């Protein structure tokens, strides 16, 4: 399922979201310029589970944050930034710019740690913003469950456009992550589904206090 847009208009410009997307794109362009040195770059700045539990200094922890801005390919960064673009602005709007920065980094960290706990001896670097963006999705399903998401969904050989409640769209997305996360091996490379699950659950938990936040006239404007 590919989200195209939601029906919520932010009241404030999501400057933090813009900045994070910009940094991710700049880092990816830098990666493209590295050629054969790309693997070394990923090894240096990706988060390695083994070193998180057997640290070689503070850098073993700092790479948890640098890894969130590194991507393994055009589809990796493309889908991550698309999901972030569709859902991130409203979460930043509800939380505020500063809190949103900490929220993003915290949920990304939670995702990396869950993956690492399940594969503590792995020396394969983790890269990508998926854990943090999964946190955004977790917060969205709590704060805006009735919002509508316009999405492309494959039906046999064709894509059709559907308008789904956020709780349905994101619920299906999380179920997919859960099924693959429970069945996939965490020891090898590939998609770190457990990082998605960890980030999503952290996003749900961190969003709960904002349910009690005094709302304005209405949560969102339909357009």
Short description:
The protein has helices spanning about 15-35, 40-45, 50-55, 60-65, 75-95, 95-120, 130-145, 165-185, 195-205, and strands at about 1-5, 150-155, 160-165.
How would you explain this protein's 3D organization?
A hairpin with a 2-residue loop joins strand 2 (148-155) and strand 3 (158-165). The chain is mainly alpha-helical and 223 residues long. The protein starts with a strand and ends in a 16-residue tail after the last helix. It has a single domain (2-211), classed as Rhomboid-like fold. It has helices at 15-34, 38-45, 49-53, 59-66, 74-95, 97-118, 130-143, 166-183, 193-207, and strands at 2-6, 148-155, 158-165. The protein has nine helices and three strands, in the order E-H-H-H-H-H-H-H-E-E-H-H. The model has no long low-confidence stretch (mean pLDDT 90). A three-stranded antiparallel β-sheet has the order 1-2-3.
DSSP helix count? Answer: 9
What is the CATH superfamily label? Rhomboid-like
Helix content: 55-70%
The amount of beta strand, in percent, is 5-15%
Number of strands: 3
Which fold name fills CATH's third level, the topology?
Answer: Rhomboid-like fold
**C-alpha-based Rg, rounded:** 17 Å
Spatial sequence of strands, sheet with the most strands: 1-2-3
Q: Which CATH class applies here?
A: Mainly Alpha
Q: Give the overall silhouette.
A: globular
Mean model confidence by pLDDT: 90
End-to-end distance:
22 Å
């Amino acid at each position: 399922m590919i989200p195209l847009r939601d029906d919520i208009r932010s009241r404030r410009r999501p400057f933090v979201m813009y900045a994070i997307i910009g940094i991710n794109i700049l880092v990816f362009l830098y990666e493209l310029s590295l050629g054969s040195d790309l693997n070394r770059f990923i090894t240096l700045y990706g988060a390695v589970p083994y070193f998180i539990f057997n640290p070689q200094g503070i850098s073993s922890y700092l790479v948890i944050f640098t890894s969130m801005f590194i991507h393994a390919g055009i589809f990796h960064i493309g889908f991550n930034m698309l999901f972030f673009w569709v859902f991130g602005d409203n979460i930043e709007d509800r939380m505020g710019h500063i809190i949103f920065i900490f929220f993003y980094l915290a949920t990304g960290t939670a995702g990396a740690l869950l993956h690492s706990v399940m594969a503590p001896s792995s020396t394969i670097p983790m890269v990508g913003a998926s854990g943090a963006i999964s946190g955004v999705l977790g917060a969205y399903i709590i704060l805006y469950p009735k919002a509508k998401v316009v999405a492309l969904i494959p039906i046999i050989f064709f894509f059709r456009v559907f308008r789904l409640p956020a709780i349905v769209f994101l619920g299906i997305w999380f179920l997919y992550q859960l099924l693959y996360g429970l069945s996939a091996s965490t020891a090898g490379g590939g998609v770190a589904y457990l990082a998605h699950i960890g980030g999503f659950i952290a996003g749900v938990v961190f969003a709960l206090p904002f349910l009690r936040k005094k709302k304005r006239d209405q949560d969102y404007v339909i357009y």
